[in-house]
Amino acid sequence: MRELDVIVIGAGQAGLSAAYHLRRSGLEPGRDFEVLDHAPHPGGAWQFRWPSLTYGKVHGMHSLPGLELTGADGSRPSSEVIGEYFDAYERRFGLRVHRPVDVSAVREGDGGRLRVETSEGTYSTRALINATGTWDRPFWPRYPGQDSFLGRQLHTADYPGPAEFAGLRVVVVGGGASGTQHLMEIADVAEETFWVTRRPPVFREGPFGEDAGRAAVAMVDERVRRGLPPQSVVSVTGLPLNDAVRRARERGILDRLPMFERITPDGVAWSDGRSVRADVILWATGFRAAVDHLAPLKLREPGGGIRVEETRAARDTRVHLVGYGPSASTVGANRAGRAAARSVTRLLDGAPALN
């Protein structure tokens, strides 16, 4: 068992930001802390994005602290651009990320330390920064008849790009940014598309300024402070009404249907007797926080979420969650990484946590 001061789980934007600030505080990778990442390559969840999601289509990517992302070709896949950037970042600051490493459980250890069980062995640590994001927990809703469907069902996490849907009838479920992006791509090659959402989509006119951003983050933060499962920041900001979306609306691609009642062997059906045939159901229904490995610590509140104050878990101040709830955005992840590193160094120094 290796003993360290800090373990960082996850090398996406939040994890790398935390590691950067830990190093700036005087802690050394390999000696004082380690970053464990289960992905095969640098790039966090970005490395798994579909090839047609080019960097120019990304809704803003905030640079990591200490190294700007500049001059990126907007026509290249975002998985390549950001993967190369994260790789350069890890090498620039000598973060020595261990990958691929799967963390199976974090438990109470001996002497007030935490026991981190992984595929490369067991660690004992004084503090933990969890930056596992959401990509590994795609959310699949359940509807009557779902197992009877004879076509293909897949989630955004498995989306291969539009080419595989050529000539097919496709139902896209989900009113977020991914759902609309999938739909607008697929509509150009599919025989027919149908857009289904639980609630009418809200389109946002004009620029999304700092005040609106702070208000959106505050709404997500309020849920986390109450111990409820976090919503994504995007879920409270609405969909940006850009030129591509306007054209899609004019073509009828974004004519939304209410949520169907059941799934049939050859499509979906509504309670009013309507039905449509479909070859594919694409679930663009989002993700949930990937925190099952923390279950032995019993951090969840009765509301189902982990109550977080700043970045500290309310039930165990040795544990910090970054990229969770209000910090699940590129700007928020950087700030959370800095806050977690600062709080952890105070813990290691024996100082009380800052409120």
Structure description:
- It is built from six helices and 18 strands.
- It is α/β, with parallel strands linked by helices and 355 residues long.
- Strands 1, 2, 3, 4, 5, 16, 17 and 18 form an eight-stranded mixed beta sheet that branches. A five-stranded parallel beta sheet has the order 6-15-7-8-11, covered by helices on one side. A three-stranded antiparallel beta sheet has the order 12-13-14, with no helix packed on it.
- Helix 1 (13-24) runs parallel beside helix 6 (330-349).
- It is globular.
- The two termini are 33 Å apart.
Relevant terms:
355 residues; alpha/beta; eight-stranded mixed sheet; five-stranded parallel sheet; 6 helices; 18 strands; 23% helix; 22% strand
Secondary structure elements and pairings:
Blueprint: E1 2-9, H1 13-24, E2 33-36, H2 78-92, E3 103-108, E4 114-118, E5 121-130, E6 152-155, E7 169-173, H3 177-186, E8 192-197, E9 203-204, H4 210-225, E10 239-240, H5 243-250, E11 256-258, E12 262-264, E13 267-269, E14 275-277, E15 280-283, E16 308-309, E17 312-313, E18 316-321, H6 330-349
Parallel strand pairs: 1-2, 1-5, 5-18, 6-15, 7-8, 7-15, 8-11, 9-10
Antiparallel strand pairs: 3-4, 4-5, 12-13, 13-14, 16-17, 17-18
Helix pairs in contact: 1-6
